[in-house]
Write a structure and sequence with these properties.
Layout (H helix, E strand, L loop, with lengths): L5 E15 L2 E16 L5 E5 L6 H8 L7 E6 L2 E2 L5 H7 E4 L13 H11 L6 H14 L4 H4 L9 H13 L5 E5 L7 H18 L2 E6 L2 H7 L2 E6 L2 E7 H6 L4 H11 L15 H12 L15 H5 L5 E3 L2 E3 L9
Parallel strand pairs: 3-8, 3-9, 6-7, 7-8
Antiparallel strand pairs: 1-2, 1-4, 4-5, 9-10, 10-12, 11-12
The protein binds adenosine-5'-triphosphate.
Protein name: ABC-type oligopeptide transport system, ATPase component
GO molecular function: ATP binding; ATP hydrolysis activity
GO biological process, one term: peptide transport
């Protein structure tokens, strides 16, 4: 049997320690996560969850920026750390939260992309390099003339994010890892950028891991969604089904927060808003022996505090919650 085309995350754990007040706390920022995201056929998989739930840690392991402590990540069946860096970066490209981080502020944007094409050995002569750049810019709704000779600060955040995506496209990747790519943009621009991911999937066969707090954009573009809670993927499945009818109490809470106009009513902190106490809440939830949502869950049972639930399967959905024990 052929290996799956795409990314396979296999039982991955990343452990961190933090000093909070006078004590050192150790916790799994990502805990025994397994997930397959296909590139053939391409899909948009959104990873959603509150701040501090382990989304970026998982993304950074996929991008090889950090190493898992346990488990492994495969790309097309091959361990990602066995790839040559250049070969790996041709297949998986990051899109950052702040598009200004993707560019050298002192360099004209076209020159910066030109160098990317050259460094990755995509083309050698000037005409073919310019042609590739123009093609990639057109895929994001721009063209070469629009960026020629201009520095990053001469563009709006939305335009620059498009240029950053075009730059990622020059290496013909299979997969984009986009960590909060629209959170720094004006609300009015966000949907046009996330829509671009959808177009790239449909027209260029690109898969996207879209990391976001924003359930509404995730609903709009995703094929599947994974809900992350303190290092655990607690609900995984079809995006429209999950967001249309969330089953895990934590997903239900996130949906309620989306619809609640007063953010104070869905504040994550169990205490007040002091930084240390928020951090303590976050880390103490991470350290819970049972379900990480047990202290906040309206449906909590005795077993939820004793054991971290396994997955239960309802139709195409995986849910990590004892409420669904009967669906084992
Ligand atoms: N290098 C590190 N050392 C110690 N703790 C870390 C480190 N990086 C992340 N953490 C902690 O791991 C947890 C998960 O962080 P992570 O950034 O992955 O969450 P996130 O869901 O991406 O949040 P956000 O949306 O705010 O970026 C947090 O409690 C964070 O403080």
């Amino acid at each position: 049997m052929n290996a799956m085309e795409g990314i396979s995350i296999k039982n991955v754990t990343k452990t961190y320690s933090q000093r909070i007040l006078f004590s050192k706390k150790t916790f799994n920022a990502v805990e025994n996560v397994s997930l397959d995201i296909t590139t053939d056929p391409p899909e948009i998989f959104s990873l959603v969850g509150e701040s501090g739930s382990g989304k970026s840690t998982l993304a950074n392991m996929i991008l090889q920026l950090i190493k898992p402590d346990i488990g492994e990540i495969l790309l097309n069946g091959k361990k990602i750390n066995d790839f040559e860096m250049l070969e790996f970066m041709k297949k998986i490209q990051p899109i950052f939260q702040d598009p200004f981080d993707s560019f050298d502020p002192m360099k004209k944007t076209d020159l910066f992309i030109y160098e990317t094409v050259k460094n990755f050995n995509i083309a050698r002569n000037k005409d073919s390099i310019n042609y590739i750049i123009d093609q990639c810019l057109q895929k994001v709704g721009l063209n070469y003339q629009m960026i020629k000779g201009r520095y990053p600060h001469e563009f709006s955040g939305g335009q620059l994010q498009r240029i950053a995506i075009a730059r990622a496209l020059v290496v013909k990747p299979l997969f984009l890892v986009a960590d909060e790519p629209v959170s720094m943009l004006d609300a009015s621009l966000r949907i046009s950028i996330v829509n671009l991911f959808k177009q790239l999937k449909e027209k260029e066969n690109l898969s996207v891991l879209y990391i976001t707090h924003d359930l509404s954009t995730a609903y709009y573009i995703s094929d599947r969604i994974g809900v992350m809670l303190r290092g655990n993927l607690v609900e995984i499945g079809n995006a429209k089904e999950i967001l249309g009818e969330p089953l895990h109490p934590y997903t239900q809470f996130l949906m309620k927060a989306l619809l609640e106009p007063d953010p104070d009513k869905t504040k994550i902190s169990l205490f007040d808003n002091e930084k240390n106490e928020e951090k303590m809440t976050e880390v103490s939830e991470y350290q819970l022996k049972g379900c990480k949502y047990a202290n906040r869950c309206p449906n909590v049972k005795k077993i939820c505090r004793e054991k971290n639930p396994e997955y239960y399967y309802i139709k195409n959905r995986k849910i990590k919650c004892f409420l669904y024990e009967e669906f084992k």
